[in-house]
Queue: 3 jobs
Job 1
Amino acid sequence: MADRSKGRVLIIAGSDSGGGAGIQADIKTVSALGGYAMTAVTAITVQNTLGVTDVHPVPPEIVRAQIEAVVGDLGADTWKIGMMGSAAHVRAVMDAWYAVGDGAPVVLDPVMIAKGGASLLEENAIEIIRDELMSVAAIVTPNAPEAEALTGVPVHDLDGQMDAADILVNQLGAWSALVKGGHINGAIIRDVLLTRDGYRVFESPRIETKATHGTGCTLASAIAAYNSKNNEPLEHSVEKARAYLMEAIKQAPGFGQGHQPLGHNWPCKLA
């Protein structure tokens, strides 16, 4: 198998015209952490901090063509998969991974609903993600509502997070699962990581802020960036990615009237 420590991250996701989430947040994150970001765009969205007003899907065959063009020339150490939109897009991405992925680790962020509430995934695509794509994921990173949709169990507290993680790993076949707790009320945010070695619960104080747009995309991309550069245990990548995300929230520029973007380039300010 090829050396997977060169920092090349293939990002498969939709674009965000406001620059706070999706492909744009992913590129900023991977670049800020010293990786090399490549993309396969699945959809063009019309959005800003106030919400998504339109979505224009890229044809699935063009998504696959982007993936094959990138991997065939530049290679990819880690794949980060975000918004896919439809069952046809999920199938195209999955077929491309089997065809040219060469076993590259997949960080799967099962994007279903935008921060403002707009649906970003068709109902029939959830079944394919759950029953087929999950089994190639090195790590899947759902928030509480996404974990509920994938597992069918309520995720309202720590026990629910652990139950969902158990299903994602031990029944649906992901190598590891990070069930995030940002949607669960409380002064402390708990994210539950389950690997084949067991559970680990990460805790951090909730930051009272409007800068929450793209947090899921950013966290998943940070995990992918650290994993692609260091080829280290995913638990270490998750720990570093959470620290990067917390600081990016604190360093937010304050742009927009709604759910504001993060300060993705904060490490560059320290250089």
Job 2
Amino acid sequence: MLELSRLGYSFVEGSCNLLFDLRKFEQIPLSSVQRRLVDSAGYSEMDDKDKERLFGEIRAGLFNTDRIFLDPHFTNGIAATRYVNWLNDAVVQGAMLYKIVYKGDSIGFFIIKSIGGGIYYPFLAGMYGGHQKSGLGLNAIYQPLSCVKSIGGKKVDTYVSTNNMSVLRMHTRLGFEIGHINNVFIKHNA
């Protein structure tokens, strides 16, 4: 780390690898309120109209803890475009994009891809603006687990940024185990 610093790289975040064995899905420790929230929600694949809504939410600042969003060398628009392009590319490459639905209303999203051997990687999820502090955020973690289990997956392998501690805490409360932590460095070229 000292050598990277000497070379002009700066530490920006840790990336925590989190693992969940779906044999433990039925034992997820949920309070009665949390159980009602996840049982009242679900997910379905996105259509083009859903994707436009998602992209609008991203452009409005959905990912405001992202390292690019927080970096003064980039604009919030560049950070948003990065996510939109990433999602579009991932879908073309076979990732599955879902909306999270609560009482008939689209409240968030997640995207997953198979990494082989019954292991799935939900690599991005979020709650839409009006629902971020509603108590429904649990669904951004729970619904991907439910989805992977329903398609026959055995394990979930994902990452959460240390810039988003509330989401990291929620994962560990639901039974995810920490696999490892990657340190992320950046260097700006002029």
Job 3
Amino acid sequence: MATLGNPKNTIEVLQKYNFNFQKKFGQNFLIDMHVLEKIIRAADINKEDFVLEIGPGIGTMTQYLCECAREVIAVEIDKNLIPILQDTLSAYKNVEIIQQDILKVDVNRLALERNQGKPIKIVANLPYYITTPIIMGLFESHVPVESITVMVQKEVAGRMQVGPGTKEYGALSLAVQYYAKPQVVANVPPNCFMPRPKVGSAVIRLTKHKEPPVQVAQESLMFALIRASFNQRRKTLVNGLYNAQGIPYSKEEIAQALGRMGLSANVRGEALTLEQFAQLSNLLGE
């Protein structure tokens, strides 16, 4: 089987099937073998592993995963890619292709049936507009995951790593850092893709924490506070939370909780660390 990381082979497959790129699915296929090898190394795939791949495209990375893993399930939303995948992966017996939106797949059930409920490894080259809902969905539904190695827009990778006080810091930074340790493993320029995206990309590995780094009584309340405080970044935290739907506290209660934490009532959400959001959530939740 021809290796798809080679641009010539990718073009041949696309021409053979007369494939048209779908803007709505944000399709950009990787055509750089060095980057593919870096992703596989970063994901640390071995023969024991069950791997879930999100967005296999024409199977470029899937071929590499099949070589290294025990079993691969590739979830692809675009039905036009299914016949191509069946062709490019025909040499492999350890792969199953599912045509579905990953947000509708019961990943917990897959892990249970295919990996005895043990943590799975996830590898993905995600369309940029849906990166956050997919990653948050996987974490919030408490899927047993060991790591997620994912190609994302460079600035999104940056956002996942930053701390308070920076412009990039936001709900995504806090959520990712609550669940996992983020590490950028490669920067990937636009010319590594077909068609070329307008922005740079990065591969980031999110290694799931065994235990969350902060203790919080109600995870859902903490995330509601985080989301509300960044929805209106320019407002003070007291006003942002008071105006948010679904947060049932008065300005006095919020200011009082901040006071107990030694913070001013004029503080903004972007100044708080993950520990402080956990503390605020615990105080309000009482």
